[in-house]
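Objective 1b: paired records.
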Amino acid sequence: MSTSISGINGYAKSGSTNMDVMGWTGDIEVNTYDSTTTADAGWDDTSASTKKVSGSFDFLYNVAKKPTGATAGLTPGSTPTLSLYIDEVNQPSELYTGVGLITKLSLKGKVKDGWIVTASFVGKGEWTFPS
């Protein structure tokens, strides 16, 4: 039987600040380059190059943890260390971490709802993944 993990214990930290996220996304990709030669018998060939990470996380605006404040450091252009946990309580090793370049901070609010902030990032250097 397989074991799945609920999102209830997942969270995201910017530096040492737990951002009390509603959820987060992460994309792990590889850049490619065309490595086709005459030895490929008329078929295209592609090879892997550098790896890249990108993603975003959503959280409610909290005046005690201002996203653009010194503690969270999520101002576009900043490069905080991000820690994205799948399940910090039961599976603390299920962690994706590295420096992220904050590319965008989106705010969305309605009169009857709380203000939701989305921080988007791209990886800046090496990241560590669960293994």
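Objective 1b, second protein:
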Amino acid sequence: MKRDTIVFGALAGLIGNIPKTIIAWLFHLLGYLEYTFIHIAAGYFVPAKFIDNPVALATGFIADYTNAAFFGIIMYLMLQKTGTDYAVVKGLSFGAFVYLVFYGAFMALDITRASLLTPLPNLLLFFPHIIYGAVTCWFIRRYSGLYNRI
């Protein structure tokens, strides 16, 4: 499985997404965020009034974890090409880039119906993204064996 770029990269992305999801739900439960990543992803598919619906949240979960798997593949390819030196720093940078694209450009385009109307949620969502990138690249470095081949 380690030699299959798609499968291993997707697995790394899914594992990296677990702490991202936990942190976002903690912020949500503490009242700092109205919407988690799962809510925001659900907002791509349903109107705002249905975002908290369990079926919509299941759809959001699938969408969020599918994106995480896709970006895990991209990060694996990146580490294959650039080497695994400073893999965690590369992951932090990649997570920051994904944050800029998804919560800068896409939120400005109103693609999702989940709206982050204040600066605090926008800032708080940065931290789970960099954790996602760091954990994903750490997992790839630790378990892929790339450091032995580069």
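The radius of gyration is 16 Å. The chain has seven helices and no strands.
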